[in-house]
Structure formats: structure tokens, C-alpha cells
Amino acid sequence: MSAASMLSVRHAVADASQVSEAKRRITDLAKEAGLDETETGKVTLIATEMATNLAKHGGGGWLIGRRLAEARADGAPVAGIEILAVDRGRGMADPAQCLRDGFSTAGTPGNGLGAIRRLGSTFDLFTRVNQGTVVLSRVWQALRGAPPPEARIGVVALPLQGEEVSGDGWNVAGTWPSVRITMIDGLGHGPLAAVATAAALAALEGAAGTPGQRLQRVHEAIRHTRGAAGALCEVDGAAGTLRYTGVGNISGVLISAGRPRSLVSHNGTLGLSAPRFQEFSLPWTPQSLLVLHSDGLTTRWDLAAYPGLVLRDPAVIAAVLWRDFQRGRDDATVLVAKAA
């Protein structure tokens, strides 16, 4: 997995009049990622179907896109686009039936969801009656017969509504089963928060040492900024360990065998006052799932309240948590990492 720190883009779709603009924004993202004409055409069709479904079936919602940068099994880099359709609508009583071409509850041809599944390299969904639906599609650059990269990380990272930049930032570096995961939340939101976060991420580029040592380096490097919260995770799948250090209001939960365990972040603000950089080591198993999020989300979530969600793609899990637990008054980032 190559290092990545990319914001998602979001477009609200309340009715059919907003479908065209939502499609355009996602299509522009595909062009920026360097996808060819055929791949970009697939993205456009998927975005159109998703946005149309939000307007007709979901009671309105959001189309969320993100550029992807991963590595194939042979190490070659590959770019892609991830598209999420997120709603709080009536949900699907029978998802398998809804995926069949010709089935519709709104008097339409009923080919949309099936087309989304066929066009993308990756497809997943999670739905609950009267609580809403999340649909995921990814389109990768031409793989010449190779399978698409395996998604271990799912992220929804969005600025506060009305802001053009986010004070949150994240980074994943390394190759599974050994990766370093970083999340930074600049104090407040807007441009000055973004400056603090950018400085923190820059301080970590190429930095060696334990998570605690690297977070202390961030603390020293961003004293000229308004400060930030931060969390660093180091997953070593071969050794079966997760090492964690956090300062401030980044929330982390490690779930293994259905049992959640909160990761301890000490009080303080990086760059201002951070008295402790204590590391914690926990077991990392093939069933482990890690959730990190900024304080743009509340901490009152429980994945056990969503039967089957832990089995879904990490991006779908992240989208459900963002949808149901965003505060709506700050930048919001949620990252989900799955061992398998």
C-alpha cells in the first residue's frame, strides 16, 4: 500500500435535479486520478445510477468519492476511484432481490443496482429496513487480468460543510501485513487547522522510531501552529501486534472476536502541551478490526447494533459510522482497517 492522504468529496442529492452535478464531480475525480476514457466512462455511469437511486429510492443522501492509490500484488502502483452512495432512507428488505435486473419498487426498469455491480471492480452494500443503505463501488485502472487490489483500509474524510479544506488528515504507509496508520486533527477547523495538520504529517515523512517517538517529534515540529490531536498505530500482522500512541481527542477502538477495546489517548494538544507519549501494545489477529476517528464523530457508536456490518468492506463500515454519528459542527474523518 502506498502512502495516501486524500480527502473525500461529497455531493448531496435530494432530488433528480442534483444528479447531473453529482455525476460531474465524480467524473472529474476519475479524470484527475488518471483513469482512461473507458474507466472514466464506467465511473460516470456508476455515479449516475447511484445518484439516481438516492433521489428515487433513498429519500435523498450523499454521493461520496475518493481517489485511490494502491499497489498490486506484484508491487506495481495502480490508481482508482471509490464511490459511496449513502442514505438514511427506507432500506432494502431483500437486497438479493433488489440486485436482480428488472426488479423495482419505483416503477423504473430496475437495472441500476445490478449495473453498478457489473461495472465496478469492487461492489458491496449494507442496508437495514427504515435505517438506510450504503452502496460501494470501486473502479481501478486496467489491471490486464490481475485481480483488483485488496482493500484493507476504508476512509471517509470530509471537511465541515461550507469549508473548502479540512483540519483532519490521515496517512497509511507500508504494505500489509505491516502498516503505519496516522490520524491528525488540527485544533478547530478551517485553514489554520489544516496548516497544523499538514505540518504534523510532514514531520512524520521518513521518520523512524516507535509510535511514541514519532508522535513526540510531531509535538516539537508543530509548536508554531495552533496545535493538533494525533494518533499513531503500527500494525504488524506477522507478529500479531498493534502498537498505539495517542494525544488528544482522536478516538480508537480495536475489535477482536466481537469484543471492542478502547485505545487510550492521553490528554493534551500536540504542539502546545503533551505531557505523555505512552505506547500500548495489543494483540492483532486475523479477525481484528480497527476504527479511528476524529471528534467530528461522537463516540456513542456500537458496531454490534448493526448485525453483519463487520463483515462488509471497510469503506462501507466507515460510511455507516460517518452517516449515523457525525456531529455536523466539525471536520469528520473515520478510518477502518480490517485484518482480513
Q: What topology does this entry show?
A:
Blueprint: E1 9-13, H1 19-33, H2 37-56, E2 61-71, E3 77-87, H3 95-98, H4 112-119, E4 122-128, E5 132-140, E6 153-158, E7 168-175, E8 178-186, H5 191-204, H6 211-221, E9 228-236, E10 241-247, E11 251-256, E12 259-263, E13 280-283, E14 289-293, H7 314-325, E15 332-338
Antiparallel strand pairs: 1-2, 2-3, 3-5, 4-5, 6-15, 7-8, 8-9, 9-10, 10-13, 11-12, 11-14, 14-15
Helix pairs in contact: 1-2, 2-4, 5-6
3D architecture notes:
- The protein contains 7 helices and 15 strands.
- The longest helix has 20 residues, at 37-56.
- Helix 1 runs antiparallel to helix 2, helix 2 runs antiparallel to helix 4 (112-119) and helix 5 (191-204) crosses helix 6.
- The protein has 340 residues and is an alpha+beta fold.
- The strands form 3 sheets. Strands 1-2-3-5-4 form a 5-stranded antiparallel β-sheet, sandwiched between helices. Strands 6-15-14-11-12 form a 5-stranded antiparallel β-sheet, covered by helices on one side. Strands 7-8-9-10-13 form a 5-stranded antiparallel β-sheet.
- Residues 1-5 and 102-110 have low confidence and may be disordered.
- 25% of the residues lie in helices and 32% in strands.
